[in-house]
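Hi Q.,

Before the meeting this afternoon, I wanted you to have the FE2/S2 (inorganic) cluster prediction in hand. No need to reply - just skim if you have a minute. The sequence and ligand are here:
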Amino acid sequence: MPTDTSSFVIKIVDHEDNQFTHQKTILECLEQHKINVHYHCREGFCGACRTKLLNGQIDYVTDPLAYIDDDEFLPCCSVPLSNIEIKVEY
Ligand code: FES
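Predicted structure with the ligand bound:
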């Protein structure tokens, strides 16, 4: 897990950019900025939070067990490794 993720920007299609500032996960960052993402388990099991990753890299803080497509990731258990661009389904 990266030790400093404070300088990364989360660019969201059709939404303003957000700075990732020491939240535990990308989901917590989105919630802090009042961006609604579907979720249930918050631990990588259910897949409810599946989100498209269009650009950039993420890393998982816990191993995800839910099925996801190659262009998706689970924000509930991940952090950015670079600036990222995502598409959130509302
Ligand atoms: S909320 Fe269940 S996998 Fe993310």
